[in-house]
Amino acid sequence: MTERRWGLDKVTEADILAGGFSTPWDAPFIPPFPFTFRNAEVLTVFWRTDPKAMQFLAPPPVEATGDVVCVHIYKMNDTSWIGPYHEANVMFGAKLPNGRSGAYSPYLFLASDGGVAHGREVHGQPKKLANPFLEFRGDLMVGGVERNGIDVITVTTPYKQQPVDPALMKAHFDYGTNLNLKAVNHIDGTPAIRQITSRKLTDVKVHECWRGPATVELRPNAQAPVFRLPVVEPLEAFYWRADFTLVTGEIIHDYLAKSE
Asked: Which of the residues 50, 64, 100, 187 could staple to 54 if both were Cys, CB 3.0 to 4.6 A apart?
């Protein structure tokens, strides 16, 4: 008979071996797939940058495409397991020699310890703890990221002036497929995981979408070096509100399998 205390069944080896397992087992830190984001508000801003800088930040065999970068500033109002928090994802178009493509994330910042852990341990996203923000200041939307007391990203756009089709947001590149470099070591320091991973959001329902002109300001920070993707020209901004679900992804390149 399974031992049960405090409303919990004692963990078994089968539980530990199952997908989605997280420690501490009696108060799991990382949510299992799928989990849902409801009424998320997003400010997505595009700017033109130096394509050589993009390629420098892309790990081989990932190849940067085009010369446009975006940042999504998320105000996650209602997230399963994790609760409300803010997040910022910096992305640019990318492809691999095997024909796979999407948007590579060199930098990700958020104000949730569980979100940081899940992003790094499961997706391999380069998440760091910071203080992203999305605010409405009169007739202006202001988004950004603060880390170490420095506003490393500040973006603005007018408040809801031009309603548009959400499909226009993917005119520069398909950011819906997120590519990441996942790197995890064994306890002895040897490589356990070295992969390029891919994930998509599902059940996306956009409630509203607005487009406007944008400003983008980047400030140097050696621990949040978004300035390495310099602003050549701010392009446009989109404010959108949506529901979506985070599900399992794929391994699209395995460095260790190649070496073996």
From this structure: 64
